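Propose amino acids for all 147 sites.
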């Protein structure tokens, strides 16, 4: 299959780095553009809970840190002569990634899974699992094991 656009959701974890490595392998063969997307989930505080910084200030700081990290990744890929786009989105991770993949004609999603199970999986679910169920394109899952 010919891949023109590969999406790599990136949370700056080791697992995301492994997914990026897989995407680089695909892109080297197909000359695809790699789309690296980081999603920041909006911060919400319980009613009556006060913080020194507002949620907007905190999100702005997260975006600045994320932008720096994404720019480093973009530079690394450009040194490998790979086409790359980076973007920061705000909202629900799963839905933002699905929307991005549809809008940007993504042909393949390379994503890591941390393999959490038990109560954590029951309560929070898995972004990777939701993407597997709803993606309009193939999803390549890279299993990451925490030591």
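Proposal:
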């Amino acid at each position: 299959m010919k891949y023109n656009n590969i999406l790599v959701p990136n949370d700056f974890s080791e697992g995301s780095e492994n997914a990026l490595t897989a995407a680089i392998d695909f892109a080297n063969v197909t000359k695809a553009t790699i789309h690296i997307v980081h999603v920041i989930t909006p911060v919400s505080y319980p009613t009556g809970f006060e913080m020194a910084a507002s949620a907007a200030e905190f999100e702005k700081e997260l975006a600045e840190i994320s932008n720096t990290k994404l720019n480093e990744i973009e530079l690394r890929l450009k040194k490998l002569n790979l086409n790359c786009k980076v973007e920061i989105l705000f909202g629900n991770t799963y839905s933002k990634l699905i929307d991005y993949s549809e809008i940007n004609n993504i042909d393949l999603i390379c994503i890591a899974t941390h393999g959490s199970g038990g109560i954590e999986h029951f309560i929070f679910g898995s972004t990777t699992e939701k993407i597997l169920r709803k993606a309009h394109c193939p999803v390549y899952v890279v299993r990451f094991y925490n030591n």
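The chain is about 45% helix and 20% strand. Helices lie at 14-30, 55-79, 93-103, 118-124, 127-134.
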